[in-house]
């Protein structure tokens, strides 16, 4: 623990002298221990400063010892046993290396065990067993530190007067709170009694039908000649009765079909062409 960079301990004597509500809210965020789930495991930071370094649980020893409740919850026994078992495992590992070097010339024989071979076999089994036991107590110590972090955060909130012993947030005195504990407003002059009833949305009005218009086909067939353009019909004057126009109808003789010009010229033969 002494070789690991520690988080800065909290000065609770100074925090308990803060009277302003906004200052206490700020102090709670700055001294709160936050968890961050990383691929390499759970990491911890004090506050939410963007430049703060995320550290492992071994860095929590100094900050958890600064609060008496979290200091009492630290897993001293598990951590001490883990250290002792790790030290014994290191000793048995050295004994295994020494016994292996002593029996290097004769070799190892399971049928005819001598003293050196027995020491080497016993040291191997002891090293493996002590390593497993040290890992179990090490994992328990890690869980104990995670539980002590929760106690530290709760004690910090209670000392600042912002959390109840159950861990619930204490709203300001002028805030309006609903039945579930949510803050509705922080203004003392604005109170909301009960839930707000909003009218149910009615059905959307149906869109007005569009006026029927001439349907035109905008898609032209591929590789087709453009349709012939027709001139618009001439604008005729409005029809008037003969009495209004002031004239009498007269008869126009029907024109008689005239023969071709060639047929009227005398002395010209008529040429017959084959039908095409």
From TrEMBL:
<feature type="compositionally biased region" description="Pro residues">
    <location>
        <begin position="200"/>
        <end position="212"/>
    </location>
</feature>
<keyword id="KW-0472">Membrane</keyword>
<feature type="region of interest" description="Disordered">
    <location>
        <begin position="195"/>
        <end position="276"/>
    </location>
</feature>
<feature type="transmembrane region" description="Helical">
    <location>
        <begin position="116"/>
        <end position="138"/>
    </location>
</feature>
<keyword id="KW-0812">Transmembrane</keyword>
<feature type="transmembrane region" description="Helical">
    <location>
        <begin position="84"/>
        <end position="104"/>
    </location>
</feature>
<feature type="compositionally biased region" description="Low complexity">
    <location>
        <begin position="213"/>
        <end position="222"/>
    </location>
</feature>
<keyword id="KW-1133">Transmembrane helix</keyword>
<feature type="compositionally biased region" description="Pro residues">
    <location>
        <begin position="223"/>
        <end position="240"/>
    </location>
</feature>
<protein>
    <submittedName>
        <fullName>Uncharacterized protein</fullName>
    </submittedName>
</protein>
């Amino acid at each position: 623990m002494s070789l690991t960079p520690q988080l800065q301990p909290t000065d609770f004597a100074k925090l308990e002298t803060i009277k302003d509500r906004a200052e206490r809210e700020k102090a709670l965020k700055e001294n709160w221990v936050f968890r961050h789930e990383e691929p390499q495991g759970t990491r911890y930071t004090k506050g939410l400063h963007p430049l703060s370094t995320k550290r492992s649980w071994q860095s929590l020893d100094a900050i958890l010892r600064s609060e008496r409740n979290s200091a009492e919850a630290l897993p001293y026994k598990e951590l001490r046993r883990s250290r002792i078992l790790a030290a014994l495992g290191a000793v048995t590992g050295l004994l295994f290396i020494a016994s292996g070097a002593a029996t290097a010339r004769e070799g190892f024989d399971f049928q005819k065990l001598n003293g050196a071979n027995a020491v080497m076999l016993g040291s191997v089994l002891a090293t493996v067993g002590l390593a497993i036991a040290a890992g179990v107590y090490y994992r328990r110590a890690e869980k104990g530190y995670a539980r002590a972090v929760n106690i530290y955060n709760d004690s910090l909130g209670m000392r600042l007067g912002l959390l109840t012993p159950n861990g619930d947030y204490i709203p300001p005195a002028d805030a309006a709170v609903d039945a579930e504990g949510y803050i509705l407003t922080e203004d003392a002059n604005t109170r909301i009694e009960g839930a707000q009833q909003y009218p149910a949305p009615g059905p959307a009005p149906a869109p007005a039908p569009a006026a029927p218009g001439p349907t035109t086909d905008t898609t032209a067939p591929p590789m087709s000649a453009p349709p012939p353009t027709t001139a618009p019909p001439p604008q005729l004057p409005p029809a008037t009765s003969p009495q209004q126009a002031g004239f009498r109808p007269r008869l126009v003789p029907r024109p008689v079909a005239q023969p071709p010009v060639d047929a009227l010229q005398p002395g010209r033969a008529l040429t017959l062409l084959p039908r095409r």
